[in-house]
Amino acid sequence: MRRVRYIFNKWLRRIVRLNDTPHSIATGFSIGVFIGMLPVYGFQMIISAAVAAVARVNKVAAIIPVWITNPLTIPPILYLQYLLGKLIVRAEDVEGVWPKIQEVGRAAGEVSLWDFKRTSGAVLAAASSLGWDVLWPTLIGCIVSGVALGLLAYPLVLRAVIWYRRRKEARRARRRERLATYLEDKAREEAAADGKPEPESVSPPGP
Asked: Over the stretch 164-177, which tens digit does the pLDDT of each residue have?
């Protein structure tokens, strides 16, 4: 649990610290979440960056969330998407789905652009073993989950970026205030040491 929390906080800090408008970052992240839920393994980063470039939003924010799908997470995500799609299209139960989806996930996790012919062939072979009764609900589940999570991600990331920047500006304001107080106190001490009248209050330096 600590490991998951550490990874989550690490990626969250990377997102909120991006140098762009909150809308651009949140929109890019939403695009990445949507692409990350689609079964386009091996091309998710390229597609996310391309869509973000066309939409003129932050490309880094679009690339980060696609890492949610990896060799470890693909099988359970695909299975949940299958269950969601089965519920939507009201498909009948199919026996032995989980082991087959595990095989698809394992093959998808090994997709490589450098050896695309062989690795993609393994994915197609594993996917064909599922049959249309499983593939169709899974595709529906992928699209619906991608849209839902993408729409949910936008306001969450938008608020996180705005909150982080406000907090950062508040810290800067406190530092400026402390500096102004320090300079004022030092000026009073020097004036007292020289026997001169105390100087007027020092205004805080600008941003």
From this structure: 888 888 888 888 88
